[in-house]
Amino acid sequence: MMLHAPNLEASPAVRHGFFTRRGGVSRGRYASLNCGFSSEDDPAAVRTNRGRAMAALELPPKALHTGRQVHGTTVITATAPWPDPPRVEADAVVTDRPGLAVAVLTADCAPVLLADPEAGVVGAVHAGWRGALAGVIEAAIAAMTTLGARRERLTAAIGPCIRQASYEVGPEFQDTFLGDDPANARFFVAGGGDRLRFDLEGYVTARLAAAGAQAIEVLGEDTVADPDRFFSNRRTQQNGGGRFGLLLSAIALIP
């Protein structure tokens, strides 16, 4: 039902999980642990799935905090339970309150979980290419430091996402990254013809390291290549399009 990052699992002060699509009640294209209200799935099934995810972390359903994701850089700080489904646009959520699970939803974008257990601060980041390029990782880390976290103590984990072998892009995509920093060329390899393949994991890792994170774990799971365990936007589009489920990645300080 969920995967763990060894570096986060080593902390007795933190609980976390990168949830797969298994273990829920949704049906059809959303089978089975779809945790996203933005899909066209039955909202009651989504609530049940989110509750099951929280139960796996030994927390009540109301502990879960996600934003309405728009591939931006807005960060919100969770201090108390808020409405479900989320009403505030945000692509990262941070907290220093034990018992509140901050989380993001993905289906190829990179979910990033962050923790400074000594300070008692955790965060979750939705890092697709747009958000990562725009600075959502740095914005989340900055928000965590305002709560007392220190960059040199940050532990980070990158969960299941589209991997380079599955991430074919055109030259205009690469141009966007090279325009930001010519050194970004290292995240691209040649594909067929004029196509390239982009290393989202590597790019997110580099942004985390540049922002000061010291211990960075990459799970190395490809959402596109594993339909039994993961939802994938790209795989869905390659197979005719339509709506798709969303994977939950959550982290909490133990109450």
Computed CA radius of gyration, to the nearest angstrom: 17 Å
Can you tell me the overall shape?
globular
Which series of helices and strands comes N to C? Answer: EHEHEEEEEEHHEEHEEHEHE
Q: How many strand segments?
A: 14
Structural class: alpha+beta
What would you say this structure looks like, in words?
- By secondary structure, this protein is an alpha+beta fold.
- It has one domain: CNF1/YfiH-like putative cysteine hydrolases (4-Layer Sandwich), CATH 3.60.140.10.
- Helices cover 24% and strands 24% of the residues.
- It is built from seven helices and 14 strands.
- A six-stranded mixed β-sheet has the order 4-5-8-7-9-13. A five-stranded mixed β-sheet has the order 1-2-14-6-3.
- The model has no long low-confidence stretch (mean pLDDT 97).
